[in-house]
Every structure is written in C-alpha cells, then in structure tokens.
Design a protein that fits this description.
616 residues, mainly alpha, globular
C-alpha cells in the first residue's frame, strides 16, 4: 500500500482532511476563511466547454493553494503565509457550500463536448469534488483517524520530514509549528462533537494508537522531539549565530506549546474519547451509516457498486485463488490438509528472518533484482530513486507489513518501508510480492512517473486514487510471475496468499460494514483462507474496521487492469506490445476506473486501426 492510504500525493482534501496528512503529502498555506470562498466568475464564462472547464479548475486550484496547508511549497517555489489549515465546523460547512456550487458549475458542461484528454481531467476533477462534498455531508471529519493513520501522527510525520532551505523557510516553519496547538484542538473538537452525535471510531481500533503522543509527552528535552528535527539539520546558508537562535526558539516553542498541547490531547483521548467510543465495528452502525459506507465505496472504487455485489465478487475470487493454491500444495507433495499447510507456513522457522537486518536485506535483494528487469517491461522509467527502510518503531506494532512513502514535493528519494516488528509475523516468502507492490514496478514507479508528468494539470499530477494506484500495485504482483521474480514454490504461494488477502478484503470489508459480520467472523475467514500470521490478520482486520471501503480498491482495480490487458491481447494477438500497454496505463497518472477503461480502449482502437491500415 501507499497510503488506506496511506502515503500518496493527492489533490482531494475534504473527507480525510487532517487524517492522512502523511498520505496526502501536502505541503503549506495562506490564511483561511470561514465564509464561502468565491467560485470562478460565472459572468466571464469563456465560450467553449473546454475553456469553461479550464477556468473552473484553474480558479479552484488557486483556492486550494490558499485554503489548505502545506500545499504551496514546491509549486514553482511559491510562498504562502505560514499557517495550517482551518478545520472548525464553520469552515467545513463553508467548504461544503463551495463544493456544492462547484458541482453545479460542472453540471453545465457536457463532457461529450470535450476531447478525450479533457474528459479524463473532467472526470478526475469531478470525482475529487464529489468526494469532498460527501465528506462534509456525512460529517466524516468528526472521525479524523482511521485504522491506519492518526491526525496527530500525521502532523508529526509531516513536521520531521521538512527540509528547510533558507532562513525564510525556517521562520515560516516556526510559525506553522506555533499553529499546531490550534490545529490539534480543532480536531479534538470534532472528536467531541462526534461523541455527542454517536459518530465515533470503534473502540477496538483505538487501543495503543496513542503511541505517537505518548512518545512525545515523555520527553524531558524538547530538542528530542520529532518537531525539532528540521532545526537540527539547518543548511549552511544560515550562519551559525542565526542557527543557534532558531534552534533556541524551536526548543522553547516545542517545550511550552507543542508538548503541552499533545499532553492535553492524549488526556482527552484516554480519559474521555476512548471510554465512550462505540463497541460496534460496522459503518452501518453510524448515523446514516449505509449512506456513509456507500460514499466510501464511491471514493475508493470510483464506481457506485453495491456492497452485496462486491461481496459476491470477493467470494468468487477466493474460490478461484484457492484452486491455484491447492495446485502448488500438490506440486510440493505436502500430505496434510490446507489448514495444516497454512499452519506450517506460519510456524516453521525456515520462512522467517532472525534479525531485522536480515529481513531488510531480503527485501533489498528483491528490490535490486526487479530494478534490473524493468527495461524489459517498461519503456519509460522515472528519474527519482527509492530506498528500503524499516517502518518507524513508534507505529510498527499496529502497522501494516509494508508501505511506500513518496519523496517530498521538492525532490528526493521515495522509501519502501518494511515492517521489522515481530519477525515471526513477516514471512520471507511474501517479500517478493510485497516488493513488487510497494517499490517497483508498483507504487514507486507509478508515483514517480506521475510526479514527473508535468504536462498534466496539478490537480491530476498530485492526485492519488486508491483503485488505480492499489489496483496497479496488485497487478504488478501478478506481473511478477511473467518477470521471473518468484524463485520458489513458496514464493509463488506467497504471491497467491497476498492475492487471496486482497480478495478476502472484498468479503470481510463488506461483511463487517454492511452485512453485520463480527470482528471474529472476519478474523476466522481471513485465517481460513490466507497464510497471513494471526498478528497480521488482527492488524489488517482492525485497519478495515477503522477505514471503511479503502480495502476494496486493490482487488477491484487489479481485476479491471487484467480485464483490459486480456481484451488487448485478444484483439491484437501476436502484435500485442506489453510495454506499450503498461506505458499507456502509467501515462494517465491516477484516474477513475471509467477513465482508465476509456483511455485503454481508445488506445486499443487506434492500434487496431493502425495495424489494419498497415496491412491494407
């Protein structure tokens, strides 16, 4: 994953505002306002539909730069006043009115009158605005955490990743840090309002999630705080005297404002929120829960599929994958039952690293092996490199098995995180599939190429749609067979158990959030069908409980990409060019499934026509 979303650059800011600041990769802001911002001027509407749409998105992008935090830096080195975004109820409702008005303007444009490229822009832009408006209408901002990330952890992660290039950036960052207590307080106010309305996170996913706060408030030295790290690495362009002054101010600010603010938030979470959080796990148990869950399906799948339809797709995929698993077990001449084989995989020491370094080395080996294979399958490769590193200790105990963290907007390397916590839950046979997914040709390849696609408008260049990104990454796990990445039958079984894991998600996510499944029922289903360790199953189930809908995107996106490839292979036969197919998909950046299908089918029709012309 890149982050349930997780660590993606995205231009959608409403639903999870403040929840996934890590995932969003957003970067600085100008002052905010509670009154509805002005929409693009209707009185000066250009003549053509394309011109009208361009005027709308350009005006909206400027609004975003002024309205949301940490977005400006990297935009042609523009500077904005150093503030964090406003999150209060009045601002949320003002944004909702703005997005509703924006949709009315989009309704006045006929997509059929646009070129194919413009239709893709229109569809992605509209999906962003609809998702944002859904977030306001369902009051999702009253649950500014999920089973994967927390708003207080995300602001810590953002702060420590800053690289301050000059004195002005250092001053701006100090001003932003001074705004953190207000920012945390507004999140706390939403949590309190959610308690009063019966709209809370499930209690089960909150236990232990206070670790990022706990680690901070126990500090005796403010300079040990994650918020201080950018000031410990100030550039030589700032003279030593000014560096010392900035560092002293940062330490004082952290000690007198940030640590107390985090201490107050922790007390609220532990003493007030956690005891009153709901015992139920399903989204259907929330106020207007069915509508909320359907809105998450629209957000993460980009189609308005019903939970029941998705559930049945999952059951069919589980049955298909199980048959492939049985074939591998037969090839290994294993004499026990399927359940016995899974227990063998979970418990035999040959499948597990003995040290964190060994696990990281294993992942690094596969990363470099795959790097060398890429030119045979892709014509265009990104300039940005990536590294391999362990998941940070503060979040590792309840974190997923791996993650991709994209580079900052101003440049640098991406990072393939591998979770080295509890090594007996991290099987080596799963590392090839994990590496394909999180590093290359999965998330790093897709993210880096999208970031370098300067010809796309910024709302697409920094966009991340889970069904596309996670669907692509899961497709690359399957592609690994063709690339020769998997070296043993156990590696192949590891790929299948990862695919089974994603198929099971369709079953258990819809089961818990729409079909009244219990946590134990979901746990048992995952245990019976995958080789994941019980620890991994538990953390995954809790992630789905706290992040409804996101887990659906992987399998549904992969199935669409594989369907499109099968159609292309069928129509082009021996003339099918796999590099061209991959390049076509990756050139899109991050798009909805309808846009993906239209783009690939258009490319396919043009290719068929060109072949017919060449043979005629």
């Amino acid at each position: 994953m890149s982050t349930s979303q997780a660590f993606a650059r995205i231009a959608v800011f409403g639903r999870h505002l403040g929840v996934l600041c890590i995932t969003a990769g957003l970067l600085a802001t100008t002052p905010l306002r509670a009154d509805p911002p002005e929409s693009p001027e209707k009185s000066k509407a250009p003549e053509s539909p394309a011109e009208r749409f361009e005027a709308i998105w350009k005006a909206d992008w400027q609004w975003r730069l002024g309205e949301f935090p940490r977005q400006v830096r990297g935009e042609d080195d523009a500077r904005a006043e150093a503030r964090l975004e406003r999150l209060d109820e009045a601002t949320q409702q003002a944004r909702g009115r703005y997005w509703a008005d924006l949709l009315e303007q989009l309704d006045q444009i006929d997509p059929a009158a646009l070129s194919q490229a413009e239709r893709a822009n229109y569809a992605v832009f509209r999906h962003q605005i609809e998702t944002n408006l859904d977030g306001v209408q369902t009051q999702a901002y009253q649950m500014p955490m999920n089973g994967d990330s927390s708003f207080y952890g995300s602001i810590q992660h953002w702060a420590q990743r800053q690289r301050l290039k000059d004195l002005q950036e250092a001053e701006d960052h100090l001003t932003q840090l001074a705004d953190v207590p207000r920012w945390l307080g507004e999140h706390q106010a939403h949590l309190a309002a959610g308690l009063a309305a019966g709209r809370t996170l499930p209690r089960i996913i909150l236990v232990g999630r206070e670790a990022p706060l706990q680690a901070e408030i126990e500090l005796k030295d403010p300079t040990a705080s994650v918020f201080y790290r950018p000031f410990a690495q100030l550039p030589d362009t700032i003279d030593a005297t000014r560096q010392a002054e900035l560092q002293a101010r940062a330490g004082k600010l952290i000690g007198e404002q940030l640590l107390p603010a985090q201490r107050a938030l922790l007390a609220f979470l532990v003493e007030t929120y956690l005891p009153a959080a709901r015992e139920s796990i399903g989204a259907s148990e929330l106020p207007d829960g069915a509508a909320y869950y359907q809105s998450t399906i629209r957000e993460f799948v980009t189609l308005d599929l019903s939970p029941e339809e998705i559930h049945q797709t999952g059951l069919a995929e589980v049955e298909r994958i199980r048959a492939e698993m049985d074939q591998i077990i037969a090839e290994l001449e294993y004499e026990g039952s399927f359940e016995d084989f899974l227990e063998f995989l979970r418990s035999d020491s040959q499948f597990y690293a003995s040290t964190p370094r060994e696990l990281i080395a294993h992942a690094s080996y596969y990363a470099k092996k795959i790097d060398g294979l890429l030119p045979d399958y892709f014509s265009k490769l990104p300039r940005a490199p990536y590294g391999v590193a362990p998941v940070p200790d503060a979040i590792a105990p309840f974190y997923t098995t791996g993650r991709y963290v994209p580079p900052p907007r101003e440049g640098g390397s991406g990072t393939y995180w591998v979770n080295t916590y509890q090594l007996d839950a991290r099987p080596l046979y799963a590392i090839p599939a994990l590496t394909l997914h999180e590093a290359v040709p999965g998330h790093h390849l897709q993210f880096a190429l999208a970031a370098e696609a300067g010809e796309q408008p910024p709302f697409r260049r920094y966009n991340y749609l889970s069904v596309y990104g996670e669907g692509w990454a899961l497709y690359t796990e399957w592609l690994g067979k063709e690339m020769g990445v998997y070296e043993t039958p156990y590696d192949h079984f590891g790929r299948l158990t990862y695919e089974m894991w994603r198929a099971c998600r369709l079953v258990v996510d819809t089961g818990m959030h729409a079909l009244d499944w219990s946590r134990q029922q979901a746990f048992d289903y995952m245990k019976a069908n995958t080789a994941l360790s019980e620890h991994e199953i538990g953390t995954e189930i809790d992630r789905y409980i706290g992040w409804p809908g996101q887990a659906l995107s992987y399998k549904l996106g992969e199935l669409e990409i594989r369907r499109l490839r099968a159609e292309a292979e069928d129509q082009l036969g021996a003339d099918f060019d796999l590099k061209a197919f991959h390049d076509q998909i990756l050139a899109l950046g991050s798009v909805t499934l309808p846009v993906l299908r239209e783009a690939v089918q258009s490319w396919l029709a043009e290719t068929v026509a060109a072949q017919a012309k060449g043979t005629g």
